[in-house]
Amino acid sequence: MPESIRRRAREDRDEAAPRGRRSDAIENDGGIFRKGFASLTELALSGVQVTACAVDLGSGKVLFSVDDHLSVPTASIGKVLLLIEVAARISARDGSSTESRPRPVRPGPGAEALSILNRTAGDEIADSGLWQHLQVPALPVSDLAALIGATSDNLATNVLLRRIGLDTVRARAESLGLRRTLLLDIVREERGPDDAPQLSVGSARELAILFGRLHAGTVVDETTSRLVRGWLSLGTDLSLVASAFGLDPLAHVEADHGLRLFNKTGTDAGIRSEAGVITGPQGGISYAVTMRFNDAELSGRLAVLDAMRVLGTDFLEYVY
Q1: Where do the TM regions start and end (predicted)?
Q2: How far apart are CA 284 and CA 214, in angstroms?
Q3: Domain spans of the chain?
Q4: Domain 3-319 in CATH: superfamily?
Q5: In terms of C-beta density within 10 A (0-12 exposed, 13-18 middle, 19 or more buried), how is residue 299 classed?
């Protein structure tokens, strides 16, 4: 990893570290999301670092923001950038990005989507994901992407990154106009002094806009955006903001009571992060929320989870 990237990540980490004070920049357009606003303010006063942004999908108007310019650690959310690069390669190499071809939600039988990748000892990693618990030694690229979307699979992430390369993912993010949102490294059990200090960093504003663009089909092209949305709609982690939406964690690809969701979460010690899109009968929101907190006591973690659910309840009321 270039030293400039590593240095910038450390500077952003230090800048955004919790300081035991409330946010200096909480904006709540028109007084909506009042319960979430009050809950986040209480957390900020207790020393939790909060960054958040919510954007109306119809108008593009920022509805709610809390220090959304800061680049903060987002744990696994940076894997979305990897999925975008994978989808763009499938779209381009399988010829499915042309306007005249059908645009499936799932990849077709193209060569890139079905390329088989083997797991190696160097890729092995614990924590999130299913592949580490399976016997199969190799899987197609599209299946690995689905595992990442569904379970944030760490092993699948490392195998795909070995194939694609971090520099390529970084270049794709830059081409999308992302400056404060990066996937910095592979997934590691421990991070040494020569490793990136975080798996990924991101700003709430950039992430909310990126997810809005995925919804609109303008991330690279419509086919790429559809592929990424399809993988993310498999996500089984509805424990944070999305816990308020009442959806089945294991089956919400289709609309349920008029609600549709695709999201990505990030979880690490003292970090809870989520970005997503929720749409309903009355409209839609793209959002991103990250909280950094003292994880020494379970009560602190539970307070963060409660606040994220309260904010999700406000989002639900807005779209439903």
Answers
A1: none
A2: 13
A3: 3-319
A4: DD-peptidase/beta-lactamase superfamily (3.40.710.10)
A5: exposed
Sheet containing strand 72-73, strands side by side: 72-73, 200-202, 182-183
Q: Which two tokens stand for residue 177?
A: 């106009």
Amino acid at 74: T
Q: What residues contact 263, with CB distance under 8 A and at least 6 apart?
A: 232, 235, 237, 238, 241, 242, 274, 275, 276, 277, 278
Residues shown for the chain = 320
d(CA 36, CA 244): 12
